[in-house]
Structures are given as C-alpha cells and as structure tokens.
Protein: Type IV pilin Tt1218-like domain-containing protein
Amino acid sequence: MLSDVPVSLKYQAGLGLIEVLISVLVLAVGLLGFAGLQTQAIRMNYDAFQRTRASLLAEELFDRMRANREVAMTSENYFHDFGDALPQINKSCVIDDSETDPLGNTCTTAELAKWDLRNWLQRLQNNSPGASAEVVRTDGVYLVTIRMNELAEGELAANNSTTESELTVKQRVTFQFETVL
Structure:
C-alpha cells in the first residue's frame, strides 16, 4: 500500500504532528510572557494608586494648613514625627456656618490645628494600614513625608487587616511633598 504513495509524501509521515507541537510550544511561551506582563501591569497600577493616595492626603493636609495659616506659620501644632503618638484633643472641632459647635464647644485655632493633624493622621492610617508621616517646616516651607507599606504579591491595601503585624510587607515606600503656605 505504501508503494502507491508518491515518494515525497512517504518522508513526511508524522511531520504535521511535529509542526503542531512546535506551534503549541510557541503559543505557550507567548501566553506565559503575556501573563508576566499582566502581573507587572497590576503591580505598577497599585504603585500608581499608592502615589495618588499619598499625594491627595498630603494636599489635604496642606489645605488644612492654609485654612489655619497663622497657626501653621507661627507654631509647631502641625509638626509630627514618624514615632509620635496622635495629638490629643478633648473636643471635636467640627464647625458649622456660624463658626460655633452645635454643642457650644468652640476650638481655638491652636486646638483646630491639633484636631486637623489628628484627623489627617487617622485618615492616613485608615487608608493605608501601617503608614506613618512626618510633618516639618523649614523657612516657611512645609515638608510632608509619608511612608507606606508595599504589600507582598496578591495582598492589597483594601485588606481587612488593620495592624502592620497582620500584613505581609514587601518594602516601605516613601513619598515627599512640599509647599509654601
């Protein structure tokens, strides 16, 4: 029966199968490369998210300082170091349109500065567990340094863990922002 097959086809028996296997191998390598590229894109997207969040938080604090400029420029009520505890304030400084608290508790501008800083630091820690900040002023220029945790693969900041010890921290990232009030 093989004698009826032309000579050129006799030598190609099984060659189609080898071509298919090589094609599948090339496709598999291409898909693995695409998966690696997608993983890298997700990682970079998360890094950009952290930078944006840090930038928005820093700008929020700068706006609070601008609203209370006299205290921000003449006192150290907005100063904070990485290891410091949250500033203590015994009343709420939420002010309505008449600039008085509905409960009759009014805050001085110095108390408002401490309240602003405490509120801002709590938002920072709620948005990024384990984050810390330093706020300093030099020659009228405020510098805000924010340290955030870069989490290990697959663990996002939206994790329900709220303490640094519960997170798998890959490394600490630092962002610095400065402004003149």
Q: What stands out?
A: Confidence is low (pLDDT under 50) at residues 156-162.
